[in-house]
Input
Amino acid sequence: MKHSWVLPVIVLTTLLAAAEAEAQQPVWVAQLGYRSDEVFPIRRGDFGYPFLQVSIGDSTYWLPFDTGNMVGLTLVTSLLDQLQLPELGRWNSFDSDGRVIGSYRKVRAPVVQVLGRTLVDQMIFEFSDATLLGLVGPDMLPGSRFTLDYRAEILAITQSAHQDVPPGFAVLPLTRSSRHPRLILSTGRVNGHPVLIEFDTGASRCNIDPTLVQELHLPMSGNGVRIDSLSIGPFVFTVPSARVNPKAGIDPSLNPPILLAVGSDILKHLILTVDYTRGQLLFFDARTDGRNK
Output
């Protein structure tokens, strides 16, 4: 005997679950015009990085979303050896000072699934960092605008530009790099000094160019230098120990050059929106949002 009430109950339960999931999302998801199918989970993993789920063939991995990775999808040598994917050629990896680190393989994966997409004949690049399985660069994102929220552990991606800036968000112009179009750059201040900044989710802590260290006479602190005031729009942070690391070689054509990279140590406190179409960065202080613990 069939019960006519079963289907309505199932439908109601599904609708309530969807409504509950939507209600639990941060306010900015609706404010910035993201649909529910444009929101993806991330995990905060090793080194404080945001990790994304990536499937290669029948295997699934959680890999860091690295906005400083201008190559694409990269995998460590040992994993590439294990997967035995066909080689397509070689590529040169460059350090942030512009020098060549080494020559590595380019391979082809028949099927890769990431961020709701199934990619066929996807190119993958080898790298030699033994501490990570791989990296997902911003070129892998399917849209032209994204928002990353470490505390809510979500990444939202869309093709549409935002309409209005929600209350509490600060807007900065996006500085464009002709060498790396999806590099995330804008101007901030270090101890009051204007500086071109890279926003790098693949850095565990802030990195500062030695020329700026010398110019500002920054004091040694731990295994780096102390920055008393790092200003990003209206938001001000203290950096107890920034790693000293050349940055200008990322794109030597930029004037002024990149002299600071803001890492996940700072970005975990901000909700970052990158709108490549409008050339804007939007920032919101996640510490003021009670639902982003």
Summary: Residues 274 and 281 are 5 Å apart (CA to CA). The domain at 165-288 is CATH 2.40.70.10 (Cathepsin D, subunit A; domain 1).
